[in-house]
Amino acid sequence: MSPASVRITSRSQYLLIAKVAEEAERWEDIVIQIKGIIQTFGSLTVDERNLLSVAYKNITNKLRNSWRIVDSLEQLETSRPADRSKRQVLLIHRERRRIERELSDVCLDIVRLLDDKLVSTATPGEETVFYLKMRGDYYRYLFEFAEPKDRNRYADLSLTAYKFAYKHAMAMLDAMHPTRLGLALNFAVYYHDVQKSPERACHLGKHAFDEAVSNLDENFPEDTMRDSMMILRLLRDDLIIWSEEIQKGDGVSAS
To answer: Is residue 205 within 8 Å of 184, Cβ to Cβ?
Structure first.
């Protein structure tokens, strides 16, 4: 039997190939396998949804980094004398637009998957918060490079997803739960980066940080505690930066 003729017939086989792809850092292959699980079996286990999240995060992070570099180069070239740089600007602009199309396709792909398959079948609690947070994240990424006519729409869609997720998390998850803390961190980043309000970012982030610390439970599983402490450190670092911005008057409040 040739390798090409071997068919995947079980959930464990999909997961095996997805984990092999993760080791090889073949993120698109992970997406294919997890989509196969969704299509065949419906909802995802914790391991499967974490793989899906890691795969899309790595795909989009690479494209977002590429976009930032090319966007900076385009701005630099635009600042030079027109007679020297017009052709270069057009070429760089074309490359930026190509990256934007790729990034938009990836973000809209995961949003459709969330809306069509995952959010509606998620169980209350961590799974629902996990998927709603992802929806907020990927609409936020779309906002970063969107045309002016689309920016408000993506900002509103991201905000709505984060609000639903945060309300659900506060009702269903412990304050030290890493999924709730990760949501609080990203929601605060939304207020800082999208709404340009370090005040709101600090308010949300500090509230989440203080609640988590006051509810610290040494009986938490070791891996859960490790994840939570890592997010708390990231949140603390951001709070320091945002507080300094407020003191210097660098932030523009959206209040």
So the answer is: yes
Residue 99: C-alpha distances to residues 133, 140, 165, 243 (Å): 24, 17, 29, 34
Which two structure tokens, joined as six digits, stand for 45? 């286990």
Contacts 24+ apart (CB under 8 A), 4-13: 8/36, 11/37, 11/40, 11/41
In terms of Cα–Cα distance, which of 42, 43, 33, 31 is closest to 12? 33
Structure tokens at 85: 């740089």
Cβ neighbours, 10 Å, residue 224: 15
- Give Cβ neighbours of residue 114 (< 8 Å, ≥ 6 apart): 131, 134, 135, 138
- Higher-pLDDT residue of 176 and 252 is 176
Mean per-residue pLDDT of the chain: 92
Query: pLDDT at residue 210 above 70?
Result: yes
What's the pLDDT score for residue 84? 60
Confidence of residue 250 (pLDDT cuts 50, 70, 90): low
At 147, which helix (H) or strand (E)? none
Helix, strand or coil for residue 214? helix
This prediction has a pTM of: 0.90
Band (pLDDT 50/70/90 cuts) for residue 253 is very low
Rg of the chain over Cα atoms, rounded to whole angstroms, equals 21
Nearest Cα neighbor of 110 from 183, 60, 67 is: 60
Q: Write out the two tokens for 216.
A: 């610290």
Residue 249 to residue 246: CA distance in whole angstroms: 5
Residue 24: φ, ψ to 5°: -85, 0
Which residue carries 């603390």 as its tokens?
236
**Domains, the chain, with CATH or none:** 10-121 (1.20.190.20), 123-246 (1.20.190.20)
**Encoded amino acid at 70, one letter:** V
